[in-house]
Amino acid sequence: MIENKNIHSLIKKHNENKLSHVFLIETNDKQKALQDITNLIKIINCTENSFIPECTKCNLCHLIDTANLPSLKIIYPDGQAIKKSQMEDLKRDFLNVPYLTKFNIYILNDAEKLNASSANTMLKFIEEPEQNILGFLITNNKENVIHTIKSRCEIIKAFYEKESSYFKNQNILDLALKYLYKIEVEKEQSIVYNKIILEEKLEKEDLLELFQNILTIYLNCINKKEVPEKMNQLIQYSQQELIKRIDLVNRIIERLNYNVNVNLLLDYFVLSLED
Description:
Layout: H1 5-15, E1 22-27, H2 30-44, H3 60-65, E2 72-75, H4 84-93, E3 104-108, H5 116-127, E4 133-139, H6 147-150, E5 154-158, H7 170-185, H8 195-198, H9 204-222, H10 239-256, H11 262-274
Helix pairs in contact: 1-2, 4-5, 7-9, 9-10, 10-11
């Protein structure tokens, strides 16, 4: 599911062969924009022509969700800036023709953190675009992106309604912390701990809130925001490990919106964390 209509509209542009080679996505929620872009990538590269990410008919979605798709590079700032070396690595990686997807695709998070050196390298990369390269630059303010980069991008506005904090039901939060502590901190990653959830006989809305709490904890870790004290160990995870968990929880939340077997879904959650 692609939540933002402007990002969703790129499917039609793709089908009409009118996609630009690089987009600047201005958003008020970088994580949601990243998820929408990831779902867009799944759809436009799907060999089954499916408009439903996670259709399971091929292995593409799994490769994307586990960060194992060679033709997709997601780049975050290295410290306080996106460095020239990161752009040089990207150019070198994309010398190869994609063989699992139609495009070599890069997603550049916090595009406003390109410094003069990395922006110059990036500029050379996008001024003479290859047919098989597609780029997405994400920022919360396009005016902070270096003009020479911004002027060569098609700008897409992707704004989302702000949700109230999911730390609103203390009982659900306590249950989420108890569950997450078992499988992430104590490392007792066994489906037997799903009983912690199942014995509560939660309604669908409560399950959604529980996993929204878990998602918020992971997001706070990757954004270096405050997390509940007993979850401090999660801060030690690498960025890639946290991204994997964020993507996994987003999939769980999406599937909870359908009529799914909760027991099997919880088993899938725990087993995926063990991979």
